[in-house]
Amino acid sequence: MKSEHMTFKSSDLSERVIKSDLCIREGTAWLLAHEPRFFHAYQKTGSLPLRLRPDGFKTLIKAITSQQVSVAAADAIWQRIEAAGFTTPKTISAASDHELRSVGLSRQKSRYAKALSEADIDYQGLRTLSSEDIILKLTKVSGIGVWTAEIYAMFSLGRADVFASGDLALQESVRILFDLPERPKEKKLRAMSQDWKPWRAVAARLLWEYYGHVKSREGIK
Fold first, then answer.
1. How far is it, in rounded angstroms, from Cα 181 to Cα 34?
2. Distance CA 205, CA 66 (A)
3. 13 - beta bridge partners?
4. Is the pLDDT of residue 102 over 80?
5. What's the CA gap between 45 and 66, in Å, rounded?
6. Cα 56 from chain centroid?
7. Helix 186-193 crosses helix 168-177 at what angle (to 10 degrees)?
8. For 55, 90, 93, 127, which has the most beta carbons within 10 A of its beta carbon?
9. Could you confirm whether domain 57-128 is CATH 1.10.340.30?
10. Are 142 and 113 in contact (CB under 8 A)?
11. d(C-alpha 133, C-alpha 57), whole Å
12. According to the 3-state scheme, what is the secondary structure of the chain?
């Protein structure tokens, strides 16, 4: 298969960047050839989603909004945030705590939103950094943890070899697929994921889809 993924390079850096479904298919083929359990999962899930989204400030504010609330609640809050125009560093910096609370942000999330608006992140510049440096830079901002930074690197910047090992759905999916006695903790799952380099972000997509398949079948019982 001809490689369609992009790479970017600096003096010491070369990373795959997922840009299309062709990249996902290439990564999937590699994973199925290297791990028989992934072949079993793929038989249940079929083709994997691209799941790319825009990068930038707005995406991270939406991620902060979604923390520790249901999907429905997060969507409702985000609609109010967009309607109020609180989607840029300038508008959030100018907003009062009362105004942010009025659109559904908790006191803590309002503080996180203010911190992000004042962080002066060079979002264009993030595209040229290594995945490790992206995560380090983002997690310096109050309210952005490792999981959020990894998800941003995977889906907003298309990094092919990032894996969110702290994700509970990924941990549970691995427990089921690999027939483990218990759900692997973050450290153990991160170690396991080393075998799936350089396509760990595609492995994550497969594991999330497999988790969804298993849970949907459980719901039928």
1. 23
2. 20
3. 10
4. yes
5. 26
6. 14
7. 60
8. 55
9. yes
10. no
11. 17
12. CCCCCEEEEECCEEEEECCCHHHHHHHHHHHHHHCHHHHHHHHHHCCCCCCCCCCCHHHHHHHHHHCCCCHHHHHHHHHHHHHHCCCCHHHHHHCCHHHHHHCCCCHHHHHHHHHHHHCCCCHHHHCCCCHHHHHHHHCCCCCCCHHHHHHHHHHCCCECCCCCCCCHHHHHHHHHHCCCCCCCCHHHHHHHHHHHCCCHHHHHHHHHHHHHHHHHHHHHC
Location of structure tokens 């894996």: 163
Q: What is the third-level CATH fold of 17-26+34-52+161-216? A: Endonuclease Iii, domain 2 (1.10.1670)
Q: How many residues appear in the chain?
A: 221
Give me the mean pLDDT over the 39-63 stretch: 97
- Tokens 């450290």 map to which residue? 187
pLDDT-derived band at 5 (thresholds 50, 70, 90) equals low
Looking up tokens 């690999």, which residue turns up? 178
Contact 103, 77 (CB under 8 A): yes
Type of residue at 30: W
Does the pLDDT of residue 33 top 80, yes or no? yes
- The residues spanned by each domain of the chain are 17-26+34-52+161-216, 57-128
